[in-house]
UniProtKB/TrEMBL annotation:
<protein>
    <submittedName>
        <fullName>META domain-containing protein</fullName>
    </submittedName>
</protein>
<feature type="signal peptide">
    <location>
        <begin position="1"/>
        <end position="32"/>
    </location>
</feature>
<feature type="domain" description="DUF306">
    <location>
        <begin position="62"/>
        <end position="140"/>
    </location>
</feature>
<dbReference type="InterPro" id="IPR005184">
    <property type="entry name" value="DUF306_Meta_HslJ"/>
</dbReference>
<dbReference type="Pfam" id="PF03724">
    <property type="entry name" value="META"/>
</dbReference>
<dbReference type="InterPro" id="IPR053147">
    <property type="entry name" value="Hsp_HslJ-like"/>
</dbReference>
<keyword id="KW-0732">Signal</keyword>
<dbReference type="InterPro" id="IPR038670">
    <property type="entry name" value="HslJ-like_sf"/>
</dbReference>
């Protein structure tokens, strides 16, 4: 194939790709235009309910071996902690009845002789100084006490 023919074919392909890019760009709405205001983050007001103000701070469980499970709730809607072996973090939100966990990330270290339960957290409730943690089906999986 001659050099001229190869250059023409390459230029034609580039032109087609450019046209497709322009057409596709017109189909994607811009997220930062005055016509499309930022959607409010439901987590921005995580600490606005009465329950949310009760849960702020650190909660710890009974030690199993050398380490104890622990969760710390921050008023910006984030939490972090440990199940006694692995670290976990994510977001939380509370209404007047329960705390809901979201975007939870947890490490996966192997710990012998250890039973993890915080890795299954989904919701929680507070009664006095006790935080009761539930899994996705709604079964109680453990409790923590205010530290």
């Amino acid at each position: 194939m001659s050099m001229r023919r190869r250059a023409a074919r390459c230029a034609g392909g580039t032109a087609v790709a450019g046209v497709l890019l322009v057409l596709l760009t017109g189909c994607v709405p811009s997220l930062n235009t005055p016509d499309a205001p930022d959607a409010p983050d439901a987590r921005d007001d995580a600490a606005d309910s009465a329950l949310a103000s009760e849960v702020l701070g650190t909660w710890a469980g009974q030690a199993e071996g050398d380490a104890a499970p622990e969760l710390t709730f921050v008023d910006d809607g984030t939490f972090s902690g440990t199940d006694g072996c692995n670290r976990l973090a994510g977001r939380w939100e509370a209404d007047d009845a329960e705390i809901e966990f979201d975007d939870v990330a947890i490490t996966q270290m192997a710990c012998s002789g250890f039973t993890s339960w915080l890795d299954r957290l989904d919701t929680a409730s507070v009664s006095g100084n006790t935080l009761t943690v539930f899994d996705d089906p709604g079964a109680e999986i453990g409790t923590l006490t205010r530290s």
